[in-house]
Design brief:
The structure holds 2 protein chains of 2 kinds.
Chain A (H helix, E strand, L loop, with lengths): L2 H17 L1 H34 L2 E4 L5 H9 L4 E4 L3 H7 L5 E3 L4 H6 L7 E3 L5 H28 L22 H7 L2 H12 L1 H7 L1 H5 L3 H5 L5 H32 L14 H27 L4 H11 L25 H11 L6 H27 L1 H4 L3
Parallel strand pairs in A: 1-2, 1-3
Antiparallel strand pairs in A: 3-4
Helix pairs in contact in A: 1-12, 2-6, 2-7, 2-8, 2-12, 8-12, 8-13, 8-15, 9-12, 9-13, 9-14, 12-13, 12-16, 13-14, 13-15, 13-16
Chain B lengths: L1 E10 L2 E11 L4 E5 L6 H8 L7 E6 L2 E2 L4 H6 L1 E4 L11 H11 L4 H15 L14 H13 L5 E5 L7 H16 L3 E6 L2 H7 L2 E6 L2 E6 L1 H8 L4 H9 L8
Parallel strand pairs in B: 3-8, 3-9, 6-7, 7-8
Antiparallel strand pairs in B: 1-2, 1-4, 4-5, 9-10
Helix pairs in contact in B: 3-4, 4-5, 5-6, 8-9
Classes of the chains: A mainly alpha, B alpha/beta.
Amino acid sequence: MRYENLWIVVSKEVMDAVRDRRSMMAGLLFALLGPFVLAAVLKAMIASEVDAGARPLHLVGAAHAPGLVRHLEAAGVTLQASEESPDSLLARSPGAVVLEVPAQAPRALAQGRAATLALWADMSIDDARRQAQRVQTLVNAYGAQLSGQRLMGAGMAPDNASALRLELRDLGGPGGRTALVLGALPLFWLLGLFVGGSHVALDATGGERERRSLEALLAQPVGPGTLFIGKWLTASLFGYVSSAAALLLSVLALERLPLYEVGIAFAPDAAMLAQMLLILLPLALLVGALQCVVALHARTHKEGQIYLNLLQLAPMLLMVEKLGATSAPSAHLLPMLSQHAHLGTLVSGGTPAPQLLALSVAGCIGGAALLIAFGSRRLGSERFVFGL
Amino acid sequence: MIVVNQISKRFKTLQALDQVSFTARPGTITALLGPNGAGKSTCLRILYGLLAPDSGRVAIDGIDVTRAPLSARRRLGIVTDEFGLYERLTPRDHLRYFGRLHGMRGAMLERAIERVVQEVGLEAEAGRPAKGFSAGQRIKVALARALLHDPAVLVLDEPTRGLDVMSTRAVREALLRARGRGAAVLLSTHVMQEAAQLCDQVVVLAAGRVRFAGTTPALLAQTGGSSLEQAFVEVIGSDEGIAA
């Protein structure tokens, strides 16, 4: 193969693809839309989580329960004493949470009976539900503390009244939901690979057949392998640029979000970005090859578009199947699943194992090589070219 | 020079070419004449190496097309049966791309582009994207592309099909100029008038076999026909698929 001819083919395909402004912008915009939407969702979630911590708890009848007030304040709850009835308070601000201490509560407690408090909240509102659950836990803990004191006064160990104790150990941390959404980022970068090069692959392969320019091209002094590789490199380049743009835009957008307020440290440095871009590169080559082979078999633009749109759904597979720490190392030969796992590791601050990275590169390059050999053979086959 | 020696090609049950032989010499225009389905396009596709013959040999300037298709194609200027253009590329972009694939570079390439643009009369459209080009403008781009590297052999598959009078005339003039430069021109057609006006020799192909190869006067003499059309009908034994 003459590398000079390869360069000639690539430069023509790039020029042709860049002039197709509408398709190029549509591909790029679609790839960039994901990170934009995700950043907006994250911004709203952070605001909501930060807000949930600082939301005041309306306390009606605070004067009847000074001990409870001290307990709640010690737990970091911002209290707002109110004399208004819970009904009217909630009617005025629907997301509020109101704790009502009835006037008879102190007497009930003094007589050794149970005092009934009321917690008013609209549990269909996320923020209100989370705040109400927290207040419930705190009030129950305070109740258990009072019961313990009574038992001790009666000469019994407090544990007699509580045989079981359940402690919730929240692994999610305060920004748990935000971290979950952040984990979806690599999915958008992978989607960029599929979206960005799709129109280029279609135009450069199936397009040649549809516009009837293939025969004249194949009759030039250039081998079918050189032509296919040139087209594959161009499609891969556009997919990769689109994915890289989505990645860089995500980082730029996330840098502007106050992720630290929910306890998440996401500040990729240049080395990490370079690692992410390197992880995506072999997959870009594989996706480009797959798109070129698929589009080569389309007789019309429309048919090719249907095939490639179906192919764009491939990253959705990651919603049902993922590689985890317990996956066999050989599973990293699986393209996309492996890159997704490595990117996820990097996003969450880890370092992918070099041997697993090597496997994921091998899987992609091996797959791409097979597809290129197949595509080149097809372009060189008289049966295929002339539909014999 | 083109030497076609005993080539045969079969597609499943159809014998498309059967022991076809002929020669197209430098400085001459040879018509490959035949009704639709005679095997003309198959023959030309074997000539530029896109189809492999089952048997026989084709040589372009002494180079075996089957063994060294790329070397043979460097000596060929081709207007294929289908000449779709890249709609976002201008004729100059097309010529630059195909010229570079033929190894042309820099000022030499640019000079050649300007030469063929003038030769086929594409000056007005040369800088405009090919989207919306008429059939005449498209064939001019395809012809300019074939002439760009000043090939020793020019092969054209029904180049005037569907063209108006002016475009047909432009194609004919370009072919006569190529002959004047010493190129061996092979043109497939089923238009009698074109063959009679332009060509130094004709190869009549019917049902995959050569029925006649020689000059038009020789064809007339052999058949005793008064016109080429009559002679053609005599040779192929049918008047199906020909045009005056």
